Amino acid sequence: MADRDARRSLSQLLRVEPGSRIDLDRFDAQRTHGWKREDAELHQAEQEARLTELQERLWAEGKRSLLIVLQGIDAAGKDGTIRKVMDAFNPQGCTVTGFKVPSSEELRHDYLWRIHHHTPGKGSVAIFNRSHYEDVLIVRVHGLVPRDVWRRRYRQINDWERLLTEEGTVIRKFFLYIDRDEQRERLQARIDDPNKRWKFSASDLPEREKWDSYRKAFEDMLEKTSTKDAPWYLIPANRKWFRNLAVSTVLAETLTAMDPRYPPADPGIEDIVIPR
Fold this sequence. Notes:
Elements: H1 4-14, E1 15-16, H2 37-61, E2 65-72, H3 78-84, E3 94-98, H4 104-107, H5 113-116, E4 125-129, H6 138-141, H7 147-166, E5 169-177, H8 180-192, H9 204-208, H10 211-225, E6 232-236, H11 240-258
Parallel strand pairs: 2-4, 2-5, 3-4, 5-6
Antiparallel strand pairs: 1-6
Helix pairs in contact: 2-11
């Protein structure tokens, strides 16, 4: 069983504090902070029950919203996290958006234009599978825009996220980190399983060759855009069960701190008796 300190402070342990220096080469993607699988899965089930109740209260209250951002290299587990953790949310108040290559229409606007449309309305939860951060990651690694363009985007993103938070959206960002060996095993597993080959793309291999360039881009993203109101959580994601525990714990603690309340009933409703 995880020690009590680890259980109490898991969110703190994973949070990237503003101004932190990140070295992913030295980050242990296998780490579980003292948790064992059996205990983690039991605790995660408890967190998911909390998420279900708290999301209902958020929806009923209708005053604030929650934005969840998932980033990670190919095969890091973004889809799996959505299946295993976000299943706790009622789809009526939750949207999932995956951001692919921008369309021609989207490219005619600023890079945040296509993102803003998918942010959550009051009472809702929105999940981004990849996000606006692709515009300081893939565009940087592939040289799609000049250096001075992607460098100023850190400030622009921080400003935009501050706008969202000031308007009532709580933001939690999760970077799912797997090491190079784990990525190789997961990509190979996709190839070896006929039912998963559809998830493998020939472009995955050239992207894997850019591992070091992506690592540096990830480090800069975490260092420059983890803020007090929109923090990043650096998740050791080699072990899927710990990844699920970590994300569900952070989200449950976030919604608990938000403390959404059911709105008051109409006066006198307690005296109503429905006629037969």
